[in-house]
Each structure stands twice: as structure tokens, then as C-alpha cells.
Amino acid sequence: MTTTPFPSGTILGYPRIGPRRELKQAVEAFWAGSITAAELEQRAAELRAATRGRLAALGLGREDAAIPESFSFYDQVLDAAVTVGAVPSRFGHLVAEDGSLDLAGYFTLARGAGDNLPLEMTKWFDSNYHYLVPEIGPETEFRLAGDRLVREFEEAKAAGYLTRPVIVGPVTFLLLAKASDEAPAGFEPLSRLDDLLPVYAELLARLHAAGATWVQLDEPALVNESIPVSRPEQLTALAEAYRVLGAETNRPALFVAAPYGALGDALPVLAASAVEAIGLDLVRGTLPSGLDPETAAALATKTVVAGVIDGHNIWRGDLAAALDVATAVTALSPTVSVSSSTSLLHLPHDAREETKLGQLGNWLAFADQKVGQIVTVAEGLRGGRAAVSAELDAAAAALAERLAAPGVRDAAVRERAAALSAADYDRGDYAERVAAQEAAIDLPLLPTTTIGSFPQTSDIRRARARLNSGVLSSTEYEALMKEEIGRVIALQEQIGLDVLVHGEPERNDMVQYFAENLDGFAVTEHGWVQSYGSRCTRPSLLWGDVSRPAPITLDWAVYAQSLTAKPVKGMLTGPVTILAWSFVRDDQPLGETATQLALALRDEIAELEGAGIGIIQVDEPALRELLPLKRADHAAYLDWSVDSFRLATAGVRPETQIHTHLCYSEFGEVIDAIGRLDADVTSVEAARSRMEIVDDIASSGFDHGIGPGVYDIHSPRVPGVAEMTQLLERALQAVPGRRLWVNPDCGLKTRGYQETVESLQNMLGATRAVRATT
Ligand code: GLN
Ligand code: ZN
To answer: Which residues bind L-methionine (predicted)?
Structure first.
């Protein structure tokens, strides 16, 4: 086969959601039945056309295959699954004779229907994007069941663009999959590689026949050391996959991308394979060095696609440094192309849309600006630094302005952080705290509580929208929120809960709310990024040193406590979670930023305590999420993340009870860290895994209070008393009653009131039943 050169600059993928979340609106309209499948297809096609047009205008249109075809209606891993016919048997009735699914069927896999649970959703590497987990078993019949990728390529071609189709590679697809319900114990999806490869080969042949010159296969699983399959097995599979696909003659040239980290020992395997281009993440990873002679020689025959522009953060950054890295890559191969380190899916579309950020706006690069940067670096690589000196200088000036801007470094914040000592991180003896808390807080055996939020009704959201548009004054808004808090407190008393919450009605989001009230953060108007499916988040921008100009939660908590004799929990979001769900500064280690956040929260906690709030919860649902992909980096991460929690919470008296909430059930690698947080009570998601987690926690030596969730809040289903009684009894086998708390899996903000009230009443019913027998 003859190979068209790889384009000199490209991106690994582009945001799909649309500059004004057009895809979200269209998909949700389809779900609501207000538009037809044909209308949804039409709107998606318009969005794809607009994307190609925009990318061409930004400079990716000059070379063939520079524009990636990376659209998805919901998720790229789900797309790969339906492309290869991997539909779990419980959805078999949705599959047509030829193996295909219509749009409604496709969304059913993502969202479930009735008793048929959707595919499990989990985090995509160390990003805040979530993918759907394919289910593979011996019974999975792989076949080319979807030709969407081919049709989208043809659609582009008809519009005059020769694009580059993107699909999750076969090895990553299987490594991210889990065993199907039918699979025997110990079954590994990767064992089906030989059966899967012919389907990929057929797809490649179809794309080749349609005129595609290059195809991108994403293999990020190779950079992730947390995948349970052994490394030698992974590498054997990688070699086999690209031996088989490479040997096909009717195929486009293959570009294998490995975003999110360094390939390590997978690089020699790919270099030895028949693929024509290899993509390296040179933002997370470093330039490979010390390669053995064969690998070096093999790599020199390929295009190395240098991921030098960060696809994962929003900073304009140091463009000259990126050009230096790209230039250094020419030592590996004479053919170097410039790209983003990851897909730009993690970024909002266009920083020029943010008109209210002032100077900060000049420091930012969203997806469109990153494309411009790639085009610049590619030009610099070809034509020399001088050819792009104006752009490099402008970026350098913006960076210098940023680093010197007021607020980026705040002397008072830095002095305080520098003066910390070990005692600031230590709450003292746990047994003494237990005794002090038992004396100070009157609680029954198996105390009941919730995780914090109560349903965010449309009235609440409307009130906030009216506040933001100036229709409501802040006094009127506060009065409405206080009414809501009053209702939530009365309801909890009526249900009989022991530790109450104020319900968080005033929070638009558990991170953005704090970002809006802390110095060092800015919020965007249009900076939406896809979290999963049609769900988007608008991360705040953490650009400077963090401090707390005024109390944040104090008035709300005090007001709630004034309404009841029962204890009301103060409710804060922890440093790691605030970092994980914001765009963070890149000019200092994350741990330093975490310390600043911890100090701000520590002051808030001190004021809550001073105002008589005796129980304070600091949520860290993202603790597991930020865990680095490389094992060697785990210890350092867990040290600073645990420290930040301890620093935030260790200032309180022994009788003040600190709670935390973690909302994932896969603890494995962070289980020791949970103990090191030294919270008095930890609530965790547990209902969906039928309390399995309590055994892991118990055997880890954890001996503080624990509240394993007794019901799943992700669905409107109301669990019965018997079901929750059983779960509590199950928990009591591993945890002594005096340490066991009773609560749902997570906050209730996405639920409706009716199901919430019924579920909580049943939760109390189960608790009473178990108390009576314990
Ligand atoms: N306190 C938060 C709430 O209840 C916790 C949310 C979370 O864990 N994601 O909404
Ligand atoms: Zn949670």
C-alpha cells in the first residue's frame, strides 16, 4: 500500500457537545419525544458539518486527514461496542437482523430500560469524562454491526473534507470491558481478541474503500497501570492486534494514539508493529529515551505524532516550549507531526466567547485556541522558529503577564502555608475523640443521616436563575432558600432522621458554589465540557492563590441549626474534589494548591464549630478520581491529598465530629488512604455492590465510623424496608453496631421528593427493625 503523508498538525479529537450544547439539547429532545430520530440525525449532521468547517478555518483544512472524525451521540466506547456488535444479551431484543441498533436502542444501552440496567459507567482515565463499560463474554458474537464511522467519513467527503476516522482500538476496547453476566468466573474479555480483530479489519477495509487515507485507533489503556490484566498479556495482545491489522492490504494507514501518559514498554511493541504512525502524549509523558537500537531504528521509519499541546487544560501556556519538545522529537524520527496530547473533548469550545473574564481571558486556550496553537507549532517545526515568532512572542507575553498578575501569588497565603507544622495536620487520639463526641452529641445506635443535598426542585433552580438575571434581589433569594431549608428540616424531623442537613438548596453545584465564594477562582459563561452522555459540567478556573474573603456556608448552617434541636451537619466540599472538578493552575504542584484550599476550608470549619455546629462533613467524592495512572505516582498523590483533608479538618476540638463522604465503590488502591483521612465517620457508596465494600474496609483495619449506603440514589426506584434491613444486617457482620451509620449512597439532589420521602421512610423502618434485634 502507498501511504499519504500524515498531516503536519492535527488534534486527537474535538468536543462533540457543541458551542451552545446543541447536541445535549437535541439528544434530550429526542429522549423526551419532542423530536424524531431523523431530526436528531439531522441536527447531529449539522453539528459535524459546523465542526469540520470550524477546524478547517482554524487551519486543519489544508492537509488531508488532519480533521478527526470524532463525533459521538453519547460515548466513544459505546460506539465501538455497537460497531463490533458487542450488545449484552439483556438488550438482545433491540438488535436488528444485521446486528445493528437504531438510535433509540443505542441510547437504551446507555440509559437502561425497566429492569434492564444500562452499561456501567466509569471514569475515562484520569479525566472527569465517563465512558460506558462494554460487557464481553464467550457468547459475544463480534461482527461489523455498525457503519456510522464509514457514513460520517462519506458525509465529510461529500462536503469536500477528507477526514480521519477515529475509533477506540481493539486492545483498549477489550481492556476497558468487563466480563458479561454469562461469562464464567475468571473470564477475561481480552481472551476474545482473535475473534474481534477480523471485525476491525473489515471496518478498516470499508473505510479504505470509502477513500480514507488514515484511521486513528486510540489505545490509551496501554498507559494505565491500574488495569487488572497483566502487563505481559497486554503487550502480547498489542503486538498481535497490530500484526493482524497491519498485515491487511486493503486498509488506510494506521495511526495509533496513546493519550494520558507515557507508553513505556508498549512503545517498543508498537514500534515493531506495522502501524504507520504513533502518537505520544508528551505533556503527561516525557520524550522516550534510552530506546534499544531495534526500537530506535523501527521508530525512525514511522511518523511520530508529538502530543505537545495539552488537551486537558485551558491554559495558553508556553508555546515556545511546546515547539522545543516537538523539535526534540525529530531525534526519534525524521517524520514528526504536531498534535494535542489528548482529545480536546475535555475542553470548552472557544475562549473568545468568554467576554467577562478581563485579563484572564488572554491567558486561556480552549479547544479552538489549542487548534491554532498546534497549527503554529507545526508551522514552526517546518519553517523554523522565525516563521512563527510573532505567535510565540504573544504567547510568552501572555504567560509573563499571567505569572506576574496580582492575585496569582498572594504573600499572606504563601506565608501561612510555609509556616505549617505537623501538629496542624493531627486531630489527636481517636479514642479520646469518640469519648468526647459521645458526651457532646446525643445519638442512638445506628444513627441515621443523609449525604447532604435534598432534591433541587425546579422552583429552586428558577429562583437562582431569577437571582442571576436580576429579577430577584439577593434578600428575596435568601428568603426563598431559607423557606426551603425550613421545609427540609421539618421533613427530616418528621421522617425521624438523627443527624439533619440543610439540604444545599443554595448550591448550583458542590464545587462551583465554593469557587464562586473563594478568591483565586473565576467562572465561565459558556465553558461547558461533556461529563457523560448529555451531561455537561462547567468547571471553574482556578487561576490564583486561594483565600476565603468571607464565610461561605456559615449563615445557612446556623439558620438550619436554629430550627431544630437535632444536630445539623455542616457541609463542605473537600480540597481534592474542588481541584478535580475545576480547571487548575499549571504553574505549581497540585499539592500546593490543595494546601491553600485546605486552609480556606479550615477557617470555614473553625467558624462553623464556633457557631455551634458540632458535626461537619467534608465531601471528597473525587479522591479516587485523581489517583495517577502510574503506580509510581500513587504514594505522592495520596500523601498530599490525605494531608489536605487533614489540614482542613484537624483544627477542631475532639468533641466536634468530622464526617467525610466518598462516592465510588471501587476502593482497592485508596483503601489505606481512607483510614489516613482520620475522619470520625465516613459514608461510602455501597448499595449497588450489595455491601461488598464493608468487608474490604473492615479487613483494611479501618476502625472509625462508617456509613455504607443502603440505597442507590441514581435511580427513582424506592427500595423496600426488607431490602435495606438485609443490607444493614449484612453490614453488621463486618462492622460492629456502635460504628455503623445508616445513610443513602449519595446526595439526593437529582431525585424527586416523592421517591425521596418514601425511600427515607423505608430506611428509617429498616433501621428500627435492626435496632430492635441488635
Ligand atoms: N454533599 C453532597 C450532596 O449531597 C455530596 C455529593 C457527592 O458526593 N457527589 O450532594
Ligand atoms: Zn456521593
So the answer is: 451-453, 504, 619
Answer yes or no: is 227 a known binding residue. no
663 is in an annotated binding site: yes
Q: In which element (H, E) is residue 495 found?
A: helix 474-495
Contact 162, 156 (CB under 8 A): yes
For residue 188, give the nearest of 155, 234, 150 by alpha carbon.
234
Q: Domain 9-404: which CATH class?
A: alpha beta
- 547 appears as a binding residue in the annotation: no
In whole angstroms, give the CA distance from residue 737 to residue 473.
48
The predicted complex's ipTM stands at 0.99
629-666 residue pLDDT tens: 899 999 999 999 999 999 999 999 999 999 999 986 66
Q: Where are the domains of the chain?
A: 9-404, 431-509+550-773
* Pairing of β 540-547 and β 582-583: parallel
Instruction: Count other Cβ atoms within 10 Å, centred on residue 66.
Output: 28
Query: Rounded CA gap, 176 and 229, in Å?
Result: 10
Both ends of the chain: CA-CA distance in Å?
A: 74
**pLDDT tens-digit readout, 416-426:** 999 999 999 99
The set of catalytic residues is 714
Determine if residue 157 is labeled as part of a ligand binding site. no
What digits encode the pLDDT tens for the residues 488-545? 999 999 999 999 999 999 999 999 999 999 999 999 999 999 999 999 999 999 999 9
Reference 608, options 660, 655, 564, 656; nearest CA is 656
Q: Closest ligand 1 atom to the C-alpha of 662? A: 8
CA of 745 to the centre of ligand 1 (A): 10
Question: Which string of DSSP letters, residue by residue, matches 1-66?
Answer: ---PPPPSB--S----S-TT-HHHHHHHHHHTTSS-HHHHHHHHHHHHHHHHHHHIIIIISSSTT-
Q: Which of 510, 664, 711, 714 to mutate to test the pocket of ligand 1 (most atoms within 8 A of CB)?
A: 510
Question: Atom 1 (ligand 1): residue with closest C-alpha?
Answer: 452
- Specify the 3-state DSSP secondary structure of 518: coil
- Ligand 1, closest atom to CA 746? 8
* Rounded Cα distance, 661 and 623, in Å: 10
Nearest-angstrom CA–CA distance, 131 and 173 = 11
Q: Label residue 378 exposed, middle or buried (CB < 10 Å: 0-12, 13-18, 19+).
A: buried
Separation CA 108–CA 95 (nearest Å): 11
* Residue 45 alpha carbon to ligand 2 centre in Å: 36
Say which CATH architecture domain 431-509+550-773 belongs to.
Alpha-Beta Barrel (3.20)
The response to whether residue 579 sits with its C-beta less than 6 Å from ligand 1 reads no
Dig out the grid coordinates for 543 from the structure: 487561576
Domains 9-404 and 431-509+550-773 share a fold: yes
Residues, Cβ < 5 Å to ion ligand 2:
621, 663, 746
| 663 Cβ closer than 6 Å to some ligand 1 atom | yes
